[in-house]
């Protein structure tokens, strides 16, 4: 999932991703969008968290800075629709 304002990415697992998106949306001041769903891959969540740990948002648990995406394994990164991921959120200058 991704935030439309910050570009932050959530790496998590759920039996019902659409229900989880609705739950997260309720508590979020920003619009959220599902950008990638990998059914049957819940076992890789911990590996992905370790791989992008340096990009973790300090107070957000499973949320990571947008820049973490390029550090995902190639087989996952290549599944992302980068046109959607890069264009739908409002990027702010650094």
Descriptive report:
The protein is of the alpha+beta class and 94 residues long. The protein has one domain. Helix content is 29%, strand content 9%. The mean pLDDT is 88.
List its salient traits.
9% strand; globular; two-stranded antiparallel ribbon; single chain; 94 residues; alpha+beta
Structure, briefly:
The protein has helices at about 15-25, 45-50, 75, 80-85, and strands spanning about 1-5, 10, 30-35, 65.
Low-pLDDT runs of 5+ residues are none
Termini Cα gap: 22 Å
Instruction: Classify the beta-strand content into a percent band.
Output: 5-15%
Q: What characteristic shape results from the CA principal axes? A: globular
Element layout with pairings:
Layout: E1 2-3, E2 9-10, H1 17-26, E3 32-33, H2 45-51, E4 63-64, H3 74-77, H4 82-87
Antiparallel strand pairs: 1-3, 2-4
